[in-house]
Amino acid sequence: xxxxxxxxxxxxxxxxxxxxxxxxxxxxxxxxxxxxxxxxxxxxxxxxxxxxxxxxxxxxxxxxxxxxxxxxxxxxxxxxxxxxxxxxxxxxxxxxxxxxxxxxxxxxxxxxxxxxxxxxxxxxxxxxxxxxxxxxxxxxxxxxxxxxxxxxxxxxxxxxxxxxxxxxxxxxxxxxxxxxxxxxxxxxxxxxxxxxxxxxxxxxxxxxxxxxxxxxxxxxxxxxxxxxxxxxxxxxxxxxxxxxxxxxx
Length: 249
Known about the structure:
Elements: H1 2-8, H2 11-22, H3 28-32, H4 39-51, E1 55-60, E2 63-68, H5 71-80, H6 83-100, E3 108-114, H7 118-126, H8 128-134, E4 139-141, E5 149-153, E6 159-169, E7 173-180, H9 184-187, E8 192-201, E9 204-212, H10 219-224, H11 227-241
Antiparallel strand pairs: 1-2, 3-9, 4-5, 5-6, 6-7, 7-8, 8-9
Helix pairs in contact: 1-4, 5-11, 7-8, 7-11, 8-11
């Protein structure tokens, strides 16, 4: 975590994170606007944030788009805040955000490094006895063939979330639609999409999660905000230690 604290120590880098919090997917040109420094200097700050895994980069043609990756901050919160205090503070932060912030670009991008092979991470994403430990006590089930149904089941058999497999290329890429059923308001919305990209990096797995294709004014998007970073942080704990993740419910 030292690199995270070093990255956060600089006010310019904190401002860059705030700008990405307000609007994700910005280019270097957009992020450099208003700073009293060269673009090269801004690039160095961004590179340090990428090294600390607080920012992820996505190339769209020749454009380098930057996204806030809140997972390292979530892991810090999980380490120093007890579960119940985190719930209360999360509710206050969500309320403050909804009152102050404009609508962001409808896409979430998260990234985390897991000390395990890709196959182990894949199994944790696709097998119910693993997901029960970190995915809000739900069991995932699917044949993982393109077009097959995906279901997250509560312990009593009720379907929490349903979807359809769009792509399943073990152990590199998994994508399916996301349609929550546990709330009537969310169930009325058209499905969005979740994609997991797994890449081997120096003996670890870099897991990249993209949740996109939200309709305008999506209630689902607002509902999942803040949840994914805790969920994949829990996945990391389960895969690396085999223990039950302390994920907020």
